[in-house]
Structure formats: C-alpha cells, structure tokens
Amino acid sequence: MLTISLRVLGVCLWFASTVAAAVEGPAFKAGFAERDITPEIGMEAPGGYGKAYHRALHDPCKVRAAVFDDGQARAAVVGIDALFIRRPTVQAIRQEIQRQCGIAPEAVMIAASHSHAAGPMGFFLPGELDGASPLVKSLVYEKSVTANPEYLARVQREIVAAVVAADAG
User: Fold this and answer.
1) 9 and 79 in contact (C-beta within 8 Å)?
2) Cα separation of 61 and 43, whole Å?
3) What letter would DSSP give residue 9?
4) Of residues 151, 157, 141, 168, the one with CA closest to residue 69
5) pLDDT digit string (tens) for 23-59?
6) Which of 17, 99, 132, 159 counts the highest number of beta carbons within 10 A?
C-alpha cells in the first residue's frame, strides 16, 4: 500500500511540476489600440473619376492595430480606413515601428479597407510628377485626387502610435 501511495504521490508531484513549468513559460499576449484619422471637411475624397471633396462625413475613419506576442516574436496587424496605402508609406511606417517598439518590419502587416469616404493618401504626392508631360500633370494634379502631405503624415503618426499602444497593452 505504501508503494502505491508513493507512486501516486510521485505522479502527482511530476504532474504538478510540469503544470508549474508550463505556467512559468512564455505566455501568449495580445494588445489592441485604435486612433482617429478622420479627414477634415473640404479635403479631397479618394476614388472617384475626378476631383471630389468631403462635404460631410458619416462615420469616423480609424486606424486599428493589434500586436501579438508569443514570448519569442511579436507581430503587428494594422487596418486603416483608407482607399489604399502606398508601399513607400508602409515601408516608412514599418521602420518607425521597429525604431519605437523593436517589432521587425517584416512582422508588420498594414491593410486598407478600400474606403471611398477616407482621406487623401494618394495616388500621387504633389510634385511627384513635375517632370511629366503637361497632359499627365493636368490629369494627375487637376483632375485626380492627390495625396495631402499633412494628412499623410498624420496617418503615419497615428498608425505608429496605435501599434506602440497595442504593444504596450
């Protein structure tokens, strides 16, 4: 009887130590944050077949970020209310996130919701096609939506701020 009791006690101690080791190991963590990137009334509205301007806004535009940490690596997933986001913008944001949080650029995914009610983030930046023909410049600068550099800088700041907050949370 004593032998069986010692074996049961041994199994219980082994099980308890295994559970305790698992609890002490790395834990999966997730943090979430959002920021407002609603454009101002009067800014260009993207996605039409010509220049259009926001006269009213139905809902706010947001940046929503999630950071996941399994104890060995972290990854950030960001959704933005925008028609699209340009690759150079994504690359700059990834570098700033790495600088502020240490999250590797290749572990940061940024996706746009394709909202036609969002702010002016592209197609082209003012001055980007200054060397083009007069026809191209007219089509791009006068008849299409161009990025608003101040708005674009604000969106970049808010994306980074959302990831930093999600990483801390």
Assistant:
1) no
2) 14
3) H
4) 168
5) 566 789 999 999 999 999 999 999 877 888 999 989 9
6) 159
Pairing state between β 108-112 and 29-36: unpaired
Distance CA(100)–CA(76), nearest Å, equals 13
Tracing tokens 């290749």 back to the chain, one arrives at 106
> For residue 63, which of 75, 77, 81 has the smallest C-alpha distance?
81
Cβ neighbours for 149, distance < 8 A, ≥ 6 positions apart: 125, 126
Helices (H), the chain: 2-24, 87-101, 134-137, 143, 149-168
Cα separation, 20 vs 41, whole angstroms: 57
Please give the structure tokens belonging to residue 88: 């150079």
Residue 141, helix vs strand vs coil:
helix
Q: How does pLDDT run across 60-103, given as a tens digit for each residue? A: 999 999 999 999 999 999 999 999 999 999 999 999 999 999 99
Which residues share a beta bridge with 62?
A: 36
3-state class (DSSP) for residue 135: helix
Total residue count of the chain as it appears in this document: 169
**Token pair of 9, please?**
């006690």
- The rounded distance, in Å, linking the Cα atoms of 29 and 165 is 14
Indicate the DSSP class of residue 45.
P
